[in-house]
Amino acid sequence: MNTIVPAIGFGLVTASILAIAGVGFTLQFGVTNILNLAYGDIMTAAAFVAYLVTSAGFSVWLALVAGAAFGSVFSVLLNRGLYTPFVRRGTRLFGMIIVTIAVSLIVQNGLLALSGARFFSLKMPRPSSVHIAGMVFTTVQLAIIAIAVVAMLLIHLLLRYTKLGKAMRATAADPDLARNCGIATDRVIDLAWAISGALCGLAGVILVMNVTAFTDTTGSEFLIPIVAVAVLGGIGQPYGAMLGALVIGITTEVAAAIFNPEYKDVVAFVILVIVLLARPQGILSEIATRKEVAA
Amino acid sequence: MRLAVTALAAVLALASAAACSSSGSSGGGSSSPPSTLVVGEFNPFTGPDAAFGPEMVGGCIPAIRLINADGGVMGHKMSCVQEDTRGDPADAVPAAQKMIATETSLVGVLGPSSDEALATVPILNTAHVPMFVDTGQAAFDHTTDAYFWRITPADDVKGYAMAIWAHQAGYTRAAAVFGNDAGAQSDVPTLVSAFTGLGGTIVYNKPFALDQSSYRSEVESILAAKPQVIFTEVDPQTGATFLSELQQLHGLLPVIGTEVSLQTPWLKAVNTAIGAASMAKYFEGMQPYAPPSGPAWQTFNNALLASKSQVPQPGQWSTDPYSMTYYDGVNIMALAMLAAHSTSPAVFDKDIMAVTEPGPGKTVVTSFAAGKAALAAGKQIQYVGAGGPIVFNQWHNSTGAFEAAKYVSGNVDLVGSVTAAQIAAISK
């Protein structure tokens, strides 16, 4: 019992990283129906940008901004320059998955060529520990939780209370109908890539802030939990991804405390399977599953 | 029409027959230069164990450099070719098959590592490819594969050495933090049996899933078991995350790692994560004892440092026992070819034992050049390598002593050793 309470606290940190990454991932899919399996590698690329920033003597806060900006710009360019032309030529959902896998390999090997298969660490002050209600956090972890809370709040405000949010939801539900209703879906899709890309970059930087040492495969190794979060919450559902992140994050840490840590992911995925058996569409999904990629 | 087709077929048949004839004569003729003999560097160059490959390059390239400078093997130059296994049997098996199919002058390989050995050793053995493996898996302790050769100690031996070193330091309660990969897990059984046999208790022993974003819950569980020391073998990212979280939550404990933790990527990643002072104070790594001294090492190191154009930052491998043994592996193969008067692996494989085992009247040589000269003079040789003497047993395994090292100010400093006799005493 005395290891479970701290484990829940640790789970909150993992959930925070997963929430940012998962919401970005599911937002991309929700609006464009492109299952971007290069997402983890873009996270890694953003982490390298942050590494360059901190190595140049700037603060980790600026590195967070730089990573998010890189993720945003890179994602928009990736969609405009590569994904959209494929979609316009009639590439379907499965074909686009293959394209994203190709991008993943290209980005990963590009990073490998540049980084030389070494491990890197962001240059930032050594954190101190803080005890809260039987749980132990470092100042970095508290910052990660705070960043996640702020990011989720901003996403909530965006989706619920702005015209852009409504347009994104409309485009996600039916891009043709949205276009006929006068919504500039091209612009909405660009903005969706920009926002989700920023979340992707942000997630990459906070991931490597947490793990302390990273390499060219760090982000891609994190992709499976991200996909699990998105699927658990209902693919395309940002709120579902937030909930999914909490479930997966806390479950894995508690499982590691109680059971064999080798199986921490297994326990999380067993829960995922059980939930999907009960609700195949995920916890919060309202979107029809018969959509095609939007351009 | 039928006539035209028949004529065309006849022309093609004649042309291909001529091509075959031409090819055959050029292969056996004396006018064309002998082919370059290829040594495959069959190890991970990408993936979590990407550090293994460059370490191998640090041994292969200096050996090839010296062999070629001395005129090669029976007129053949030699070269090292990287074959990336990605540390995954799913990638390693096709990589092995491709290497065997395409490298027609392949005379041997360095590797495979523990990541892919179980899947690829049978393939290489069936194809009659001598392999100087860097896997430590105990599954090969009694192998009968004729082309399997191991000059680095098996993992189970490593477990004995770690247990003895911890016992000598007075530790009686230990946690075993090993990755859930086959290589790391193969260390654990002998570590546990040896440490408990010496009166200690393993208070935590659970495999770690690698490259997770957090190990805080595992840290809490370990701390609840109150160990005095942590035995470990995990990859650099996992090591950095785990130890930095241990430091943040509790403060570090003494850590005894395997040779994986004495590799540059691990040292740098963890050093950055926990700080140089903590690293110097709490960490020790065990690796095969290969003192950086003596004529064989001097020859290796000079060649290594002169290979800057092919080996990035060559100095980092100067004291690396694995780089030394890869260097020795290439030299042994080359000398075995000379002893057998053949570059055919099926012929020279049996001479690997002959050029390394000690014996009365044998000439001890510490370099390829010396061995080549001695063999040319009709002498029998015993090659003593940069990593020390090599004595294969009937299962083609050669085991030596271990050294303990610390990482201080960017240098790996030797702090003590566990002798082969100590290991033999506890492993009975």
Shape of chain A: globular
Look at the helices and sheets of chain A and give the structural class: mainly alpha
| Nearest-integer average pLDDT of chain A | 88
Oligomer: heterodimer
The largest β sheet of chain B comes out as: 7 strands, mixed
Lateral arrangement of strands in the main beta sheet of chain B: 7-6-8-9-10-14-15
Q: What would you say this structure looks like, in words?
A:
The complex is a heterodimer of chains A (about 300) and B (about 425). Chain A has about 300 residues and is mostly helical. Chain A has helices at about 5-30, 40-55, 60-90, 95-115, 140-160, 165-175, 175-180, 185-210, 220, 225-235, 240-260, 265-280; strands spanning about 130, 135-140. In chain A, about 75% of the residues lie in helices and about 5% in strands. Chain A has a two-stranded antiparallel ribbon with strand order 1-2. Chain B has helices at about 1-30, 50-70, 90-100, 115-125, 155-170, 180-185, 190-195, 215-225, 235-250, 265-275, 275-280, 295-305, 320-340, 345-350, 350-355, 370-375, 420-425, and strands at about 35-45, 80-85, 105-110, 130-135, 150, 175-180, 200-205, 230-235, 255, 285-290, 365, 380-385, 390, 400-410, 410-420. In chain B, the strands form 3 sheets. In chain B, strands 7-6-8-9-10-14-15 form a 7-stranded mixed sheet. Chain B has a 5-stranded parallel sheet with strand order 2-1-3-4-5. A 3-stranded mixed sheet of chain B has the order 11-12-13, covered by helices on one side. Residues about 1-30 of chain B have low confidence and may be disordered. The interface of A and B includes residues 119, 218 and 252 of A.
Task: Write a short abstract of this structure.
Helix content of chain A is 73%, strand content 3%. Chain A is mostly helical and 295 residues long. Chain B has 428 residues and is an alpha/beta fold.
